[in-house]
Specification:
This protein is mostly beta strands and 222 residues long. The chain has a single domain, classed as Porin, CATH 2.40.160. Helix content is 9%, strand content 66%. Strands 1-2-3-6-7-10-11-12 form an eight-stranded antiparallel beta barrel. A four-stranded antiparallel sheet has the order 4-5-8-9, with no helix packed on it. It is elongated. The two termini are 26 Å apart.
Amino acid sequence: MKVINVVSIILICVQFLFPQELSKVNRFSINASIRTNFINVNNSTVGIKLGLNYNLNSNISFSFNTALLPTILSERSFIESRDYSFAHNDYFVTKVIDYERNFTIIPFDLSAQYNFSISSLRPYVFVTSGYDLLINYYSYSQKVETYAESTGQVLTSYDRSYSSTTSEINGNDNIWAFSLGIGSGIYVPVSDYFLLDFSYCYHKNSYINAVHSFGIGFKRTL
């Protein structure tokens, strides 16, 4: 509620400080895009992103954005334990393999954008920050192997399901993560009120180091 009040005060002040410029600019617009997202070169997913924009002037705008972004994390492995056996005079190593994981990201973020003007084209740059809801992030399968370190011989191997209810997390499989992003794009005018939008965004949150997102969509002035 405090954030909404602060934003409202800022917008009211802007209207008094820039009355002539605002009268020349359509203050609100919407945008939508189909986005292809890469966490690594092997995995890509397609999602949709929506935004509501407030245009401060012809160059500066602010947006509230959300999206539905299916996501894939590749298989990974790590050593869970390494214990010495006096009876066998060897170390027994337990390795865990996380199978490929599928979950969904729903971001809620605010962005600030600066628009340029080159002939009829309108390139832009932006920064964004907010929170991502990661749905079913802690729900996937694992393979557990125990082997002798000296020979590499596998002694035991089995699959298990991992979730927040069976781990030390003891919570929900859905989690929130703080996010940051930076990107650029270009608008191609079709009319005074409708523009095609081609964009790229580098995005990361508390759990995912890097998402490269490419989008094709439109911006419509209200």
